[in-house]
Amino acid sequence: MTRDDIVVSEPGHVGRARLLALAAARRANLLGQRVSLAATELASNLVKHAGRGLFGVVAWNGRLDLLAIDSGPGIRRLADSLRDGYSTTGTLGAGLGAVRRAADLFDAYTLAGAGAVVLARWRSEPTSGPRVGAALFTAPGETDCGDMWTAVGSAGALTIAVSDGLGHGTPAAEASRVAISTVSESAARAPGSILESVQPRIARTRGATVAVAQVRPAEGKVRFGGVGNVACRLYSAPGARAARLVSRPGIVGAAGAKRAVESTADWSRESRRLPRTDGVSDRWSAGDWPGLFGHDPATVAAWVLGRRGRGRDDACVVAVTGE
């Protein structure tokens, strides 16, 4: 496989970002012209305005997200930056406005002195039901990301899983592919049962840490089970204190692995759930980033990854919002 993210730090990286986006557009059966334009503008902006940033492509369930993540000065006047002709670098000033017109959905979050995240999406999902977004980073020097995720709807529930293959590179990616594939096939089961199904399938790989949550909006509940160090925060509402959903220590696929212990928590329209792998530090507070939870889940995930990603290992953050 080829990684779906690239660190952009020089003009020559813009073309590589565009090729990543076009390859993903072909896999999603999307026309590439609008995707190509948006990718070029997003990657170019990383060089011109931040000097360095992460460009990521996230394809899921026929949807395609392009994410530009940086830790630069931030977008001082976002509304003006979306207007054609406005520029802070002496260019034509058509960048963000062109991205917004090209995409089916556009979102951006920025803080002065802290950076920005810009999201461009095609084939946006319906607005009803829990919404999901993700951001990933591949360890430096690797072409495969060992961290993976999925979200599968089944029988009134949305099952979300995150897998962190041990180590990084191709062996870690293979372990996560097996785990995520098994979750997708078993999504109608409870989280603990899903993890039991993963155990024998992944035993021939190097193993992984895996967390599974199942959101049932009609019941107002979320069920969770995990093995290993995939951490998960649950916010009952924006501004509320985070609750930690706890995984059992261990490795899925290891001999003698114990069954995951399930936990249940309340879920509502205001709930937010954020699982992340250990490539992302857990030392942060949502209160440091005013208004972040009002944005698209992919923007939320990308901001957390951009601000707290360790930068030396695979990393994955998934954000889920209530219906």
Structure, described:
- The chain is α+β, with helices and mostly antiparallel strands and 323 residues long.
- 27% of the residues lie in helices and 31% in strands.
- The protein has 2 domains: 5-122, Histidine kinase-like ATPase, C-terminal domain (Heat Shock Protein 90, 2-Layer Sandwich); 131-321, Phosphatase 2c, domain 1.
- The strands form 3 sheets. It has a 5-stranded antiparallel sheet, with helices on both faces.
- α2 packs antiparallel against α4 and α5 (170-185) crosses α6 (191-202).
- The longest helix is centred in the N-terminal third of the chain and has 19 residues, at 32-50.
- The protein is globular, with a radius of gyration of 19 Å.
- The two termini are 34 Å apart.
- 49% of the residues are buried.
In short:
By secondary structure, the chain is of the alpha+beta class. It folds into two domains: about 5-120, Histidine kinase-like ATPase, C-terminal domain (Heat Shock Protein 90, 2-Layer Sandwich); about 130-320, 4-Layer Sandwich (Phosphatase 2c, domain 1), CATH 3.60.40. Helix content is about 25%, strand content about 30%.
